[in-house]
Structure formats: C-alpha cells, structure tokens
UniProtKB/TrEMBL annotation, chain A:
Residues 185-217 form the ChsH2 rubredoxin-like zinc ribbon domain. Pfam families: OB_ChsH2_C, zf-ChsH2. It comes from the Bacteria. This is Zn-ribbon domain-containing OB-fold protein. Signal peptide: none annotated. Residues 64-127, 222-285 form the ChsH2 C-terminal OB-fold domain. It comes from Streptomyces sp. R21. InterPro entries: ChsH2_C, ChsH2_Znr, NA-bd_OB-fold, Thioester_dehydratase-like. PANTHER family: BLR3430 PROTEIN.
TrEMBL record, chain B:
InterPro entries: Thiolase-like. It comes from Streptomyces sp. R21. One of its GO terms (molecular function) is acyltransferase activity, transferring groups other than amino-acyl groups. This is Thiolase domain-containing protein.
Length: 312, 351
C-alpha cells in the first residue's frame, strides 16, 4: 500500500447568533458588571437565565439581579488548558451558585493549585477588562471570602446587546482513504484511475471504494481516459469570487473513455457557444497542476448520442 | 404497554476499534460491517425495507458527510433511508418506530465515527449551549470531571472505586476481540482532576451495524432473536448547573417506560464513556451486584463516537443470540454528563 495521504483541514466559522429578551438582558448586564437571573413560576432564580422554565416549559421573563459572589458547587482541576479556554494557566472548571441564585453557572476559577480549591469555597467574578456582552465578559472567578452588595439594577439597559458572534475553529488532518488516495496518486502522474464494481462491472471515477448501486466494495483499478466525451454542459455567466476565468465559460460533464460515470470540468479552447453534447475532449494540464486545468476539443468527430446516453 | 408488533435485533456486527484508520475512508471502514450483518441473515441490501444511520459532520469535518457512506448500502435504485446526527442508538429507535408502523419488516441500522482526524475533546464542545458554554470551550473530559467530583463530594464514589470500574471493564474486554483497550491498563495521571486517563475512554475509529426484523421474519433470519420489549429515550435540561449531576432521572424514566423495572435483567450494556458515569447509571437503573454489567468492556474499552451507543444495544442483543442472556438492557447516552439517555430492554424466547 502506498503511503497514506494526509493534509491539514481547518473548519472555521464566525457563528452569528441573535439573542432573545432574557439572554440579551443577561449578556448586556455582564457588559455593565451586573449579573441577572430569571425567576421561575415556583420562585426559583435561574442563573444563567433562560427563556423557558426547564421543568414546566413556561415562558419566563422576570429578571432579577444576583450577586457577583457565590459558592462553588463542584469543580475539576484543569492543569493543561486547551485553546479557547478562559485561562492559559492551570485553572479549575467550576460550577458556581451565585448568591441569590438557585442554579449554578459554569466558568473557570483562577487558583494557585488544586489544593486551593474545594466544593463550598467562596468566589467572586473577575471581570474582563474589555467587555462586549458575552459570557467571556466574566474573565474567570477568583477566591473571595466576602459577599457583595447588589447594584439594585432592574435589568433595563440602554444600548442592549442583541447578538453575539461566536468564532469556532476545529483542526483536522484529512485522509481520503484507499480508493480516493489511489485516484489522487495517479493524478500526480497525469493519469486518471477509477475502480470497477465486481458485481455490475461499472467503472467509477473518481472511485470512492464502493458501488452505490450494488452496495459492494470496488477494488479493481482501471485506467480511463485521457480523452472523453461531453455528455451535458452549462454556460456560466457569473464570475465566481477569487476565480480568474473570464465569463461566459462552459462547465461540463465529461465521460472519460472507459468510465461509466461522468466527472465534471471546464471546457476551454473553443468558443463557449460552440460547445455541444458529444464533443470529444482531452485534458489540459498546467505546470504544477494537481488536476486538469480544463478540457479542450480533440478535433475528432463528435460521439454518437447512443454511445454516451446512459452516462448523462 | 407492549409494542403493537414484535421487533427484534437479528444481527449485529462491528469493526475492530482502533486509534486511527486513516488508510480507509468512512465508507471503506463501514462496508465490511454492513456485509457482515447482511451475511449473517442471508439478506442483500435490496432486501432491506428501511435504512437508518447515525454519524456526525463535526467528527468528519465535512458537511453532509453521511451521504458518502450511503454508497456502502446500495442507495440506487432509491431506497427508504434516514439519518440522525446522533449516536446510532437513536437511528435504531427511528428504525424501530418505522417497523412499528408496518411500513417495513426489516431495517438496517448503522453508525460510524472516525475521531482520529480531529481532536474529539474539542469537537464535542460544539454540541454545547452556544451562548453561555461553548465560548468557554469546556472539553468533554472537563465536564465529566465536574460530574465525577460531584459524586465524590456526595460520597457516592471515590478514586479507588473509579479505578475499579476501569479495571473491571478492561479485564472484561479481554474476551472482546474488537476492543481497543484490553487487559491491564494503568490508571495514569490526571487528565482533568479527579479523572485520570484510565477513567476516560480511548479515542478511536469504528463502525457498527444492526439488522432489525418484525414478527416471523425475525425468526426466519435468526435462530434466537433478541426481541425489543421496550425502548425509550429522554433528555434533561441543557444547563449543567440546573441538573443534579449525581443522578440521571432521564435514564430512570426511559428505563421505566421501556419496562426495565418490570423484571430483573441479567445483563446490562451501559454507555458510560467515563468511569464515574457508570456509578450514576447503576444507581438510576437500580442494577444489583448480580447483573453482569458491560461484559464487552463497554465504552471504556472502545468508544467510537456515534457508534458506541448502538454497540451497547448490539452487544446486549448478541448475548441473547448466543444464549448467554435471557433479558438484557442496552443503554446509550449523548451530550455532556449523561444529558440524553436511551434504554432498550431485550429478551430471548424462553428456553
């Protein structure tokens, strides 16, 4: 087996989320160093607040201020912080029941070591220097033996935060697997390989290791092309971002000779309005290209419709 | 209430679970398992009435990743198919309801997960509350560690007892050739205190498949079908600070609705990726010392994310198929700290 192909794959999104009235008030409060909870029908105070009672599903809107001090209800010592976590030095994850609240908030506790942390210990919020209306406006908790006065805030603010942007990034090392790796390896030699289904004999390009019709593994490698036939096509009139190709151009399904599945590619070397079904084409490689840049006419007579009609 | 149709697990198969499988794509990893369960029943893909799968785009790092795996089940000509972005145990639940309606007599359920391309501890943070929790990136081990400390504070377990759960599970796994961690495994250092590496599941890749059949069809396909006497799943509040982490009322309710408490079970396959979670589940399910818990080694021996719950039901069923159990419980979980729980009660015909 050839060396396993691998490449880094980064998936990154700035998730933009809108807030309902309760979450909006809570996160705006954090920006103003005020912590708000919400009252349930049976008189409990939920912090962090939610819009619906988790027990009764009743809509709840009654905001109430709680203290920035509280008690640790459980904890876990994190000696090796990971990317994105609140502190980059060893810290404790904590659930903290703030004074006046009946539920606990998850956050980080800055403490010198695990010996300094215990369930029941008293803590207070350490505010972030710059706050924007996000859970990270709480930089972390810190040990604190006292209690704090409430500001008497009613939960109404000017300039409410109505949304958050939560960036997320995950890193992967992608491996294409046996069949697709063989396809990519062959492309590096400017060859195209597919795989034949042992049951229906169809040749799949690019191969994925399975025949979707028969549901069996494909394994017999078959070289196809390099020439092929345009089975169908479209004319693209809108320029894609970051794509240096003049419009209009033609994008086509191309059945390479010997393949039972058409792959797709751009057609060049011919005016866009002269491309047609049945046109015989061949790949054009550019220096250093890892796949054909486009396909151009071979000059052969067009293929008969009957030859490619099953591949459209 | 008894189901309106008798439905059974008639075949179960799984891959060997390994730390990496980067020489195979998902469908390449999955296909031998699909053929295994089809061969056991003598069926072809075209004989299957309904197909349902469980997997996660976040593990694959790719949108609609399950469509690639569909090539492995022969999706042309068109088949009746569905997918859940959950553990395959929930796909099994959907297939079970489909068979209950009478729309199909057989179902193929499969699940797979390759954790090796990414960092599963980071990936799982993306299933958390996106407003208050996910921006802090608390990883799956950290959240389980909070639950473990709550149990220790409540006096329900201690670190030696947790080490005992780890040891028993991996010793049991010596008889499971598919398991990733078997035999003596060191408890190791703290990963997130109070959990040590030994308290945590291995990270690995794997797949599993199950075939369900209704009524007489089940008897045709399997010598001793594992009849699903009841199955139910329940969820708790997403806010960790709202829940009592030392208990699992959702598991207890699901078990009650699945009929688990009507008569004792002899075997329980529990989906407890962390040792501390077994403590919670044993209590919620009222399992006595006479119940054989996780004879397969459980998720502490192999934890292919998205398949590990389906494997619990499959392992429970396989023990009934082999005559090693008469009434077994299969459990699956999803979400942090046992947030969502599914319980299935399986029985073999009286002997």
């Amino acid at each position: 087996m050839p060396e396993v192909l691998k490449a880094p794959l980064v998936v990154e999104f700035p998730f933009t989320r809108s807030l309902g009235p309760v979450q909006s008030a809570f996160l705006t409060g954090l920006r103003e160093r005020v912590v708000l909870g919400v009252k349930t029908g049976d008189g409990r105070t939920l912090v962090p607040p939610v819009e619906y009672d988790p027990v009764t599903a009743e809509e709840i809107r009654d905001l109430v201020e709680v203290a920035p001090t509280g008690t640790v209800t459980t904890w876990a010592w994190n000696h090796a912080p990971r990317r994105g976590q609140p502190l980059d030095t060893p810290f404790a994850w904590v659930l903290v029941k703030l004074d006046g609240a009946d539920t606990a908030l998850l956050h980080a506790l800055d403490a010198p070591g695990s010996d300094a942390v215990r369930t029941g210990m008293r803590v207070r919020i350490r505010w972030a220097g710059e706050r924007c209306g996000a859970i990270t406006d709480i930089a972390c908790f810190e040990p604190y033996d006292g209690s704090a006065e409430l500001t008497g805030h009613d939960g109404l603010f000017e300039d409410m935060v109505t949304g958050i942007v939560a960036p997320a990034r995950l890193d992967y090392v992608y491996s294409p697997g046996r069949a697709q790796a063989a396809y990519i390896d062959a492309l590096s030699e400017r060859r195209t390989v597919g795989e034949r289904c042992p049951s229906c004999q169809k040749v799949y390009v690019p191969p994925r290791g399975a025949c979707p019709t028969c549901g069996v593994a494909t394994s017999e490698r078959v070289e196809v092309g390099p020439r092929g036939t345009v089975t169908t096509y479209c004319i693209v009139n809108i320029k894609a971002k970051n794509l240096d190709i003049d419009v209009p151009y033609v994008y086509a399904h191309i059945a390479l000779d010997g393949a039972d599945l058409a792959l797709h590619g751009r057609i060049g070397g011919i005016p866009y309005d002269q491309v047609r079904m049945g046109l015989r084409v061949e790949p054009v490689w550019t220096e250093g290209g890892r796949y054909p840049d486009h396909y151009r006419p071979t000059g052969e007579p067009d293929a008969d419709y009957d030859v490619y009609k099953e591949l459209i | 209430m008894r189901p309106v149709r008798d439905i059974a697990v008639v075949a179960f198969g799984q891959t060997d679970h390994r730390r990496t499988s980067d020489e195979f794509s998902e469908v390449e990893m999955l296909m031998p398992v699909l053929h295994d369960v089809l061969d056991r029943t003598g069926m072809k893909t075209s004989d299957i009435g309904f197909t349902c799968s469980g997997s996660s785009d976040y593990l694959a790092g790719r949108a609609f990743s399950f469509t690639m795996a569909l090539d492995g089940v022969g999706a042309w000509p068109p088949i009746s198919e569905s997918h859940v972005e959950m553990d395959g145990a929930w796909a099994l639940y959907e297939a079970w309801t489909k068979l209950l309606t009478g729309d199909a007599d057989t179902a193929l359920v499969y699940a797979y997960g390759k954790s090796s391309p990414g960092s599963v501890r980071d990936v799982l943070t993306r299933q958390l509350d996106p407003y208050y929790v996910a921006p802090l990136w608390p990883d799956s081990v950290a959240l389980a560690a909070l639950q473990a400390q709550a149990l220790i504070d409540a006096g329900e377990t201690d670190e030696p007892a947790l080490a005992g759960v780890a040891s028993r599970s991996r010793t049991a796994a010596t008889s499971n050739s598919h398991a990733q961690l078997r035999g003596s495994v060191a408890q190791g250092d703290y990963l997130v205190r109070p959990l040590r590496t030994g308290d945590c599941p291995p990270i690995g890749d794997g797949a599993a498949a199950v075939i369900l059949a209704a009524g007489e069809r089940a008897r045709d396909l399997c010598e001793r079908p594992a009849w699903i006497r009841g199955i139910d799943h329940r969820i708790e509040a997403h806010g960790l600070g709202v829940r009592d982490l030392t208990d699992s009322p959702s598991t207890r309710l699901a078990a009650e609705r699945a009929g688990a408490f009507e008569r004792p079970v002899d075997t329980a396959e529990l989906h407890a990726p962390f040792t501390s979670q077994e403590v919670v589940l044993r209590k919620a399910l009222r399992l006595g010392a006479d119940v054989d818990v996780n004879p397969s080694g459980g998720a502490l021996a192999a934890n292919p994310v998205m398949a590990a719950g389906l494997i619990r039901i499959g392992e429970a069923a396989a023990r009934i198929h082999r005559g090693l159990s008469d009434r077994a419980l299969g459990h699956a979980t999803s979400g942090p700290c046992l947030q969502q729980n599914l319980v299935a009660v399986l029985e073999g015909d009286a002997r």
